[in-house]
Amino acid sequence: MHISSKKHHVCKLLQVYTGYVNAFFLPVIMIRKTYILAAVTLLFFSTGCSQAPEGGTQTRQRHEVLLEMSKDYNKVLLLGLVASITASFVLFYKLSQKHKKEKVLEAYTAETRISRKVHDEIANEIYSTILFVASEEVVSGTKKDKLISQLDDIYLRTRNISRENHDIDTGFRFPIQLKLMLGCYAGDSINVLIKGLEKVEWDKITASKKIATYRVLQELMVNMAKHSHATVVLVDFKEEKKKINITYSDNGTGTAGEKIIFKNGLQNVENRMVAIGGSLIFDFSAGRGFHLTLIYPANTIYV
Amino acid sequence: MFSKILIVEDIDSISLGVTTLLHANFNASIHSSKYCDEALLKLKKAYNENDPFDLVVTDLSFQDSNRETKISTGEDLIYQIKKEQPFIRVIAYSVDDKPFRIKSLFDTYRVDGFVAKGRESVTELIEAVNHIYNTGEKYISPHLTYILKDFSHRIDEDDIELLVCLSKGMTQAEISDTFRNQLKKTSSTSSIEKRLNKLKMNFKAHNTIHLISIAKDMGLI
Fold first, then answer.
1. Is residue A187 part of a domain?
2. Contact, B219 vs B212, CB < 8 A?
3. Residue A96 vs residues A30, A209, A296, B79: alpha-carbon distances, Å
């Protein structure tokens, strides 16, 4: 009777152990449940041992066998515990990474959705209002021109919002798209130089990293066009030791001294880099212009 | 001049505006459609009846309607038109002015013209129609011409190497020797000269000293 109940315990322990193995693939809550289960089993097991009957060589032998068995159980239990702890750490890490990635993608979807809404609904609406005012006799004289130019201003701004947040092709056309984006800030007074864009193996880089790269560079280019008075901008792409290094530099006014004001734009740049496990390095050694290196791992850090 | 024009636009007021505009300026029969699928059917029908359209002016994005649609974007419509009746000229007319989208319209979808909706779009649309009919060439709104020109410049490692050599005070002959020793493809003095001129242009430098000063500002050397 006793042995069969022990067998039952072994079965239970084994169940717990397989439970731990399963826990690799189950949510954390399940692990907690198995912990409780293991504790309960342990309690049963120890009380069962202390209540064992005494006397006679047969019983002693039996006790010795039981002792041996219980040692084995303990080993199994220890192994199970170690396995479960490792499993929960791995699980925790994987889940937090997944969550991070989801957050980045979520922000991106929200952005593009709003962009499309602004584009489809507001920009088109304003445009048709401009057409209406221009063609009908709603307002007359000089006021009409003023109204139209004000509407046009609103229209251009909405279009800019939509353009700055549009969706990004993260497929094989990504490099061409990135090059075009950088190129569109070039003009009579600004030259945009691009180095090494084709040498990076973009097809091996995840979509969320491509999006972050695109948006960060876009942010820097917008800032450059607005404030820097630069005439030359260089964006240098490198892939070294499984890390992507992107150096942005211009010959504009730069920042005043070494004090960097993390206003909206730069704060966004930093947030986006941190979100993909990267970092920013500012370089003030050149004395003039604005120099910034973005570094992030080319491969995903987790398997 | 074009004799039969189809306007594909889902917002009534814009569609009406374009129709009136084209009527006032061109002697053509003008039709309009609010949906891509319907537009394609109209084009097919006209072709089968031996009275095909010769110009299509289409928007790029269409709001989701409750109808089930096979073609939902201007790009897909343009693709179908160019596939089925390649002789039809197509002008895209949109609020969208994303460089990438416009470039792919010309490169991938072989559109004949792009007019951005805006204050000037009325005159631009008339210009586009005339330009495409008279010259047969592509048309793009003047403020967007940069998209097709590609203003960005590419530089490479050798360019940086050249700048570094110059900043060390080396003459072009010496640089040529160094490059030859490093087994670089372009090492002749004339190609160094050419490279230098290209760099001066790229960096907006007036002379070599200016070039080095800018490169220093940029933190390249």
1. yes
2. no
3. 17, 17, 18, 44
A288 close to B (CB below 8 A) = yes
Say if residue B120 is in the same domain as residue B196: no
- Same domain for B185 and B115: no
- B29-33 sheet: strands from edge to edge: B29-33, B4-8, B55-58, B89-94, B113-116, B139-140
Q: How many CB atoms lie within 10 A of CB B45?
A: 11
Residue A252 main-chain phi, psi, to 5 deg: -85, -155
User: How many domains does chain A fold into?
Assistant: 2
Pairing of strands A232-240, A191-195: parallel
Instruction: Find, among A221, A217, A115, A108, the residue nearest to B95 by Cα.
Output: A115
Tell me the C-alpha distance between A56 and A58, whole Å. Answer: 5
The distance of A268 to chain B (nearest Cα, Å) reads 22
- B153 interaction partners in chain A (CB closer than 8 Å): 191-194
Structural domain that includes position B108: 4-149
CA distance, residue B2 to nearest chain A CA (Å)? 24
CB contact under 8 A, B153 and A131: no
Chain centroid, CA A24 distance in Å: 22
Please tell me the pTM assigned to this model.
Answer: 0.70
Total domains in chain B come to 2
Question: Which of A130, A134, A179 minimises the CB distance to B152?
Answer: A179
Please list every residue in chain A whose beta carbon sits closer than 8 Å to the beta carbon of residue B117.
124, 127
Task: Supply the pLDDT for residue A1.
Answer: 43
Task: Specify the CATH number for the domain of residue A181.
Answer: 3.30.565.10
Name every chain B residue with its beta carbon within 8 A of the beta carbon of A231.
Answer: 204, 214
Q: What is the interface size between A and B, counted as CB pairs within 8 Å? A: 123
A181 and A297 part of one domain: yes
What's the pLDDT tens digit per position in A222-253?
888 888 888 999 999 999 888 999 999 998 88
Could you report the predicted ipTM of this complex, rounded to two decimals? 0.76
Q: Looking at the structure, tell me whether residues B61 and B169 fall in a common domain.
A: no
Domain assignment of residue A88, given as a range: 2-102
Contact B219 A156 (CB under 8 A): no
State both tokens at A163: 């353009």
A251-270 tens-digit pLDDT: 888 776 555 565 667 888 88
Using CA coordinates, name the residue in chain B closest to A287.
B217
